[in-house]
Design goal:
Radius of gyration: 19 Å
Strand content: 25-35%
Largest sheet: 7 strands, mixed
Number of helices: 10
Shape: globular
Structural class: alpha+beta
Length: about 300
């Protein structure tokens, strides 16, 4: 048995996000193009002789009980396989919280991976993904990582060729957004046809490795809700595009905005404007990173 593991939980962005319909179970059917980026949380798992699950984090406002997804992930597998040992999980958050980057889901995915390895449970990645959806719709993708088409509630995944490498500028305003409330305020029936992002066209552009065309296909229907309430989202997008981004988009339910750059100097200039310029007091967290395509 492995008694100690250090893991990285990578954040994601949505290159495209469409909501098709609300299901009878309350979830929504979606079509999304998901992409992992180089910002990650750090997790340390330590097996203990004392039974139970202990969680500690570097953020005082995060729960350390069953309300934390990492706790839920550990409990899910340890209960199923009657693991008698305990586990201590140390979580250091760097992915912005409540930001549309699946930080909590990625943390849970890493714990599923880690508990499976630590206690020799023998589950394949596909088997972990089937269990992960019980915790959250993004957890299966966070186990897969890379570039993928996501359908259903997010659990039906089709791996795609890795996106061409580029620089990614990420900026989160100093606000938090409830995914649940965003979906509840999205009027699917009121949207015209041109509001739907061209998911199939983006898949073709990725297959052709045409980064410019991928950027042209950006679209996120949830912007209709979040950006309307928070104008800072459009302001951040404008700064990125003014400074040379191929395009910029809100990720997930927001409020995080990302832009893709092929020019390092342009990306750095946009970073500095958001970090130190007129929007610095509003764009509270700004990162310059790259795509992460390793599975």
């Amino acid at each position: 048995m492995t008694t100690h593991l250090k893991l990285k939980a990578y954040g994601k962005i949505n290159l495209a996000l469409d909501v098709l319909r609300k299901r009878e179970d309350g979830y929504h059917d979606v079509r999304m193009i998901m992409q992992t980026v180089g910002i990650y949380d750090q997790l340390e798992l330590q097996a203990t002789r004392k039974p139970g699950i202990a969680v500690e984090t570097n953020l005082s406002y995060l729960p350390v009980n069953e309300n934390n997804l990492v706790y839920q992930a550990a409990k899910l597998l340890m209960d199923e396989f009657s693991v008698k040992s305990g586990i201590h999980i140390t979580l250091r958050k760097f992915i912005p919280v409540a930001a549309g980057m699946a930080g909590g889901s990625s943390d849970a995915a890493s714990v599923l991976f880690g508990v499976n390895k630590m206690f020799n449970l023998g589950l394949s990645r596909e088997e972990l993904m089937k269990r992960g959806v019980k915790i959250g719709a993004d957890v299966p993708y966070c186990l897969l990582r890379g570039t993928a088409l996501s359908e259903g509630i997010g659990e039906k995944l089709t791996p795609l060729p890795a996106m061409p490498q580029c620089r990614v500028l990420i900026a989160k305003p100093g606000i938090s957004v409830s995914t649940k409330l965003v979906y509840e305020n999205l009027n699917i029936n009121a949207r015209s046809g041109d509001c739907h992002p061209d998911i199939d066209g983006m898949v073709q552009a990725i297959q052709k490795q045409d980064l410019q065309e991928v950027a042209k296909k950006f679209g996120n229907v949830l912007e209709l809700v979040t950006a309307k309430k928070y104008p800072i989202i459009e302001e951040i997008k404008a700064v990125m595009k003014k400074n040379g981004a191929l395009n910029a988009l809100m990720s997930g339910s927001g409020p995080t905005v990302f832009g893709l750059f092929t020019d390092e100097r342009a990306a750095q200039k946009a970073y500095e404007e958001l970090r130190y310029g007129s929007l610095a007091s509003l764009a509270k967290q700004v990162y310059l990173t790259s795509l992460f395509n390793r599975r």
